[in-house]
Amino acid sequence: MKQKPMTALRTARLVDAERIFALIHLHRDRLVPRSLGNIVENIDRFVVAEVDGEMVGCATYGIFPEIGEPLHTAVEIQSVAVRAPWRRQGVGRALVQEIVRRVRAFEPAAALVLTFSPEFFGTLGFHEVPKDKVMYKLYTGCINCTKYANPFTCPEKAMVLDLKAHSPCSAQK
Length: 173
Ligand SMILES: CC(C)(COP(=O)(O)OP(=O)(O)OC[C@H]1O[C@@H](n2cnc3c(N)ncnc32)[C@H](O)[C@@H]1OP(=O)(O)O)[C@@H](O)C(=O)NCCC(=O)NCCS
Known about the structure:
Layout: E1 7-11, H1 17-26, H2 36-41, E2 47-51, E3 54-64, E4 74-82, H3 91-103, E5 110-115, H4 118-123, E6 127-128, H5 135-140, E7 157-162
Parallel strand pairs: 4-5
Antiparallel strand pairs: 1-2, 2-3, 3-4, 5-7, 6-7
The structure holds coenzyme A.
């Protein structure tokens, strides 16, 4: 029987930037586009997943100073992508858990994501919140969207993982 390959997670290196760019671009219908320059400038925030030395996934984060409870000092999980042949094998889960593990050091109130994949984030303990709870994101990100004029009717869901309480995302699965 074929053994499931081992996924290794590591901080991205500058030489990964073009592959990360290509992976995000491949999912441009679901992910906010990023320039190569933006990826390079934020390379230390990217985590990549490798199987047998091949990069199969990536994820990163941003820090958003939302005003008021419960989302002040939220971190946003961004650019989560797994190459199609490697999906449904726990790679996406491992990437998001690793980002959450890293950002816990900053003690944010919550991890936030705007996503077209709510079922995936739901399995990680995220729950949907009204978009008016993430106004900083709407004013700095969604307002520049070229696909949807109104973030409140855009089908992307705003979801949050409470990092103050114990959450399933912190548990190993
Ligand atoms: C969303 C994505 C990152 C998931 O990656 P993945 O490696 O397949 O996810 P995992 O195998 O770790 O799945 C973790 C859990 O989510 C579930 N899940 C994953 N994708 C799902 C989907 N499309 N619909 C419903 N559930 C899903 C899995 O069944 C698994 O649940 P389980 O723990 O109960 O078995 C991947 O499909 C992808 O890259 N999609 C395109 C880009 C994208 O939409 N990114 C998210 C935007 S923020």
